[in-house]
Amino acid sequence: MREGPDISRISSLIGDPARASMLTALMAGKALTASELAREAGVTVQTASSHLGKLERGGLLRLRKQGRHKYFSLAGDDVAHVLEALMGLAADAGHLRTRPGPKNAALREARVCYNHLAGDMGTRLFDSMMARQFLSQPGDDLTLSPGGVRFVREFGIDLDALAANRAPLCRECLDWSERRSHLAGSLGRALLHRIEELGWARRDRETRAVLFTPRGRNGFEELIAAP
Amino acid sequence: MREGPDISRISSLIGDPARASMLTALMAGKALTASELAREAGVTVQTASSHLGKLERGGLLRLRKQGRHKYFSLAGDDVAHVLEALMGLAADAGHLRTRPGPKNAALREARVCYNHLAGDMGTRLFDSMMARQFLSQPGDDLTLSPGGVRFVREFGIDLDALAANRAPLCRECLDWSERRSHLAGSLGRALLHRIEELGWARRDRETRAVLFTPRGRNGFEELIAAP
DNA sequence: CTCATGGTTCGACGCTAACCGAAGCATTAC
DNA sequence: GTAATGCTTCGGTTAGCGTCGAACCATGAG
């Protein structure tokens, strides 16, 4: 017996065809629900549930509960790295691109999620705030940094009024089109409200789309640009 | 159902404990016979024969017949790379097969990763070469800069002979203990070979450890010191 | 409240694959 | 030649795991 980490445990997890299909699907970087992964793997939801439990316990997947949905994503870059290396070895057929299923371009760009901004512009705002360290995520919860407080105040939001509310200020929310995080919570709602207040955008009556004016688009891009 | 490279086939091969032990043993870079690998895995020779057949048919092992012996070795750098990456994941989960001991310390400092230098000294060599811009990473691939060419030549390596080989010259390999990059590819192999040639170090018979002499250690530190 | 939906647990079935004993080749040693 | 060593093939046993149907729990909608 040689020394070294136990490879077989992890590898046997990836070694099942159904689980491999799930992991491959998650390589696109977007979180998927248990049902979607079941369909992806061609098994029933019961079977998928068993597989997903093993993958999560094995440390390959990260789980985020949201309502009655469970969103799974790869646990980290190192997992993706292993999968990529395995695909290189298995270089039989060329790999396949994913179809995101675009319904409405405007909806994917910007839309309302309950009461906050979602879609591409929502995730970009979130990413920008994370990159500038306006938000930090020490544990499971999001908190606003001092720099973030300044940023939000300068945008014209009354933070004290929000803090008085007992609803959580910052919450992370997963996108159905982008499958990436954006900002929810009372701050997320306030941000969208302020965007409408400034005349940057208005909500469509029929759909959940958020329609930006040219001027609003410029303002938004300026807002999320690095300092 | 998503088509793609069949990572489950390869991964299920690695996923068996006996086969994983064999592959781990072969990470030392030495070719081993079927009987030795059987002992390594703790199974009878019949069972090992079956496993080795599968591994060879699966493209993970290369076979060299010599008399009545069969020498097995890893099929290539890409296989070693996958195994190393898997060890990184497994070590992360804290499922080490053997508890850390004195032998383990030597392994962390310097060991063989298939045919090149890994461990602390491997990553330090890599870092030093990156810092002096001997290696550049424009896209995904590593390339040797003119300064790097000079450095390697002065160390006594015949670069032209390496370039004649169609195997990639520089490759990045991720360490399971350091979780940082070190140099693989034909250049990585040549560097380790030169280190042994100079009498700076020798490989341990039993483990993957690379044991440096005091003189070799001095030479190595001088080599990676900034100009 | 009731209904619908997403996900889990349980039990049973069936298939696969790892394992070893014994016998069979093949090659080298004497 | 015979003996010994290295490895493979064959049969048969066993254990594990993937799979699905059915029932169950939890959340959200109306």
Automatic annotation (TrEMBL), chains A, B:
Highest taxon of the lineage = Bacteria
SUPFAM superfamilies per UniProt: Winged helix' DNA-binding domain (SSF46785)
Q: Which InterPro entries match?
A: ArsR-like_HTH, HTH_ArsR_DNA-bd_dom, HTH_Metal-responsive_Reg, WH-like_DNA-bd_sf, WH_DNA-bd_sf
This protein is called DNA-binding transcriptional ArsR family regulator
Q: Name one GO molecular function term.
A: cadmium ion sensor activity
Asked if the Swiss-Prot or TrEMBL record annotates the protein with the keyword DNA-binding, the reply is yes
PANTHER family from the entry? Answer: TRANSCRIPTIONAL REGULATOR-RELATED (PTHR39168), TRANSCRIPTIONAL REGULATORY PROTEIN (PTHR39168:SF1)
